Amino acid sequence: MLIELAIRLKQLGKERYGVIGGDKLGQLTSQPPDRVYWTALRAWGLLLPEIDSRPEVLRRLRSRGAPVLLDDDGGRLDDRTSDAFAGLPKAPKGWDDPLSPLNFEMARTERDYLRQKLCLIPRPGEQEPSLLARLVAARDSFKSKSTDLPQELDSRVDKPDRIALGVARGAAALAAIGRAVYGALIEELMAREGVPGDGTFHALLESHFAAFAEAAGRCDLDSAEQLLPALPAYVKAVLRETKAYIVEGKPYKFSSLLACYRTSEVCRKGSGRARLLDTERSAQRRREWEPERHNTTPLHYRWPIVREMLADLSEDS
Fold first, then answer.
1. pTM of the model
2. Residues facing 122 on adjacent strands
């Protein structure tokens, strides 16, 4: 069913982007679509309240096509409901036809339904509406195609969200410089081993400092740790040492971060996959590294996807 859905969206519906499994049509992805959006289904109130697990949803959906077993009096032997979703609008035309194309365009009834559900999303652990709920309720849309969190968001935030938004912007800039630091550390280790390189990330640190150092230096890490209490100690150490390096304002002193970046990488990946260790295995991993695929952009928190969804939901037709 998931494979069929991907084919109908990508091949028949001509959707270019956003189809999970679209790059390998006919194969089941390692992360099935329903597992990817499971959290959203629950958080957005699309599932019935009594459903507490993904297997329960799958059981109910499978039971829809099963024959109904009756007792001698004509009553159902299995009285468990097959409903899983909370008042979904009518399925689009051709939904049950496996040869009918599908696309991501929403009918007005679908937009109204999704808008209603999103408007009810509270902040985690609170009763106050989330920032997403307020944006949807106001039918806000944003024209800029930048991946940065736009300043227009500030008009919709309250005090807690203002703090969180400030942390997010600072962390985005901090991550951009941190990613460049990681690349520069690998370049330095490879140079010590006699592996030629062009110093891409050494040079990138200079331009990243010019572009992101001011915002990164303002990142409130105390607030970040309050917002994310489960943040591992090794991540906290990397953030604080990277911020101190940025505040010092000397991009060429990135080597001082090797120890904390090495510890963090080993904690996240394990010693077998780490590139910063002083081992033969890590040296091999460095030689296999593809620097052109190393991302040094700021964190975007999937804002472009949220922006497109808000634009879809703001339409009336």
1. 0.84
2. 129
